[in-house]
Amino acid sequence: MKHLYGGTILRVDLTERRITKEPTSAYVDRYMGGKGINAKILFDEVDPQTAPYEPGNRLLFSAGPLAGTCFPGACRVDVMARSPVTGALGDSGMGGYFGAALKFASYDHIVVQGRAEKPVYLAVQDDQVEIRDASALWGKDTYDTPDRIRKELDDPKMEVISIGPAGEKLVVFASIQSPSGNAAARTGMGAVMGSKQLKAIAVRGTKGVAIARPKEFVAATQKLRQAIAQNRFYPDVHQYGLTKVHDQEMRFSYDIIGETFEGPEWASISEVEFQKKHLHNRVGCFACPVACFDSYDIADAGGAGCMKCSPPGDLTFDVRNPDMKIFWRAFVLCQRYGIDARSLSNLLNWMMQLYQNGIITEADTDGIPMKWGNPEAIIAMAEKISLRQGIGDVLADGAFRAIEAFGKESERFILMTKGSLSDIHSIPIKSRALGFSVSPIGSDAQTQPVLDTAATRKYLTAKDEAEFQQLIKRYTERAATEVGARNAPDPRVTEGKAALVRQNEKRTAMCDIAGVCSWMTSFIGLPVDIETIAEFLTLGSGNPVTVEEVDRAGLRMQYLERAFNARMGLTRGNDMVSEAYFHRPLSTVKDHQQIGVTKTELEQMKDDYYRLMELDLKTGAPTRLVLEKLDMKDVADRLGI
Fold first, then answer.
1. Is 101 helix (H, G, I), strand (E, B) or coil?
2. pTM of structure
3. Could you tell me the CA-to-CA distances from 81 to 7, 45, 84, 178 in Å, in that order?
4. I need a labelling partner for 573 at 20 to 30 A (CA). Which of 154, 301, 543, 630 fits?
5. What is the CATH number of the domain that holds 635?
6. pLDDT < 50 stretches in the chain
7. Which residues contact 486 (CB under 8 A, 6 or more apart)?
């Protein structure tokens, strides 16, 4: 493995304080790299008797084969473990510069097991790997920790990822943070890291990534970057990140949900105006031509940080807070403490609904009224949860413990899937419900089919059926070509929704195994596709890599995720959204019952999805037939099927 790969899996046993290395090559032929190899290691080494916080759980970090190269967006790191949120698969991706540093040190993966006797951090400087004392870092936030480590190691160029107080205190949705604003969030990877008393990982690599055909690789990269720059979506994304688009999409989403708060406060929320007034700089991850992050430094609202995509909507629209400085203050707290801002937003929205409906009072929330948009509630809960203070100690253990505390009636208001708190402003249409249900980790931002989303917008504005069919003609034609289901964009039908979800999954899978950011793809309208990935894997490795091989590696990864969840006891019944999904959109929305989803419709779509994936219709697990077709007999044997 001279080219493209680091060639080494670094294994760290914190209990034994033992560091070993093994070749990546044993996994590459079938699983290619990145998340695919992570999934194989997790499946092989973590059994149902190993709870998320036990030493035997593995915490896995991977940088795929293209990570660390000049390929656009070749920055992604996959983080995987058994999750305290789902009880089964936990997985999260993060960008920044850590993945490139890992590859430059000649490592494709880090596998952490065991639990240290006292807080430690891992220092990786090329071939030198140390487990170092982190007692003085315990309790520090994720801003302070990297600075202290760089000073201690006398290396300002160390790439450091760390947990904050939330991870140390095992807040179930604690995140692992990078200094560039990237986070491995949602499924509790920060809590798993905290359970191992691992405060941080610092990496510095100086070896680079070897490319088999460097001149051709660089020439192809330059051509691809030109194609990205000339794409019609690029100028806005490069200049505004997702701020401009997100401003519009938040209002569109709430039009479909049918829920807004009244008055000038609603209109006053403007991410674009906030950016114009406060933007410090644009920030990009390693090798990224887009630079989608906004950097702010607002002295009277929490200070500095980097942000992209949804947090402004999470902490304004979703909690009816019109003050964007309150959003920024809360977001910076999430970054410093190391908790997932979207999970915080979901809990706030939920408690504000409960407060409005008289299910909870100030007596349940440490004297803080959970009124819509209450700045005190937003800031206080971010701190209380992160530090496990008062009611925050209950909320820090996740949705199920909170439901127990607030009573069974509270459950019907919460949006979650597989225990993972969902995006409040997710468009409540059929494909989203299916995508969230069948996702191995619950609500997943990567499963957002664009064709039926766009068609839903047209449906709500069309004056009659004839106009609607005319407005969506280009979407139906695309669906016929791309997924073989012409009616798939129509939000009123279940037909083709499984095919749309599979299209999204395949796009994401190719990025996950390659170590590439999915924002370079059709996810936001950019041109990277599976043919592109195969071409660069070929040029980089020096060996021919076909589209079919990339697709099969992605499938193997997805079947491993399904197989792992099956071993953890998940069945078809766990592929389900919570009750609140079935009451959206609200009755004020045009034909709300047709564009929303019923339980019967969801079961029909699950049947369609399972058939597409050749899964067992009763259990949702992979069948021996499909596993053997993909040379995964060992996985079938382990499942006992």
1. helix
2. 0.97
3. 22, 11, 9, 18
4. 630
5. 1.10.599.10
6. none
7. 476, 477, 479, 480, 496
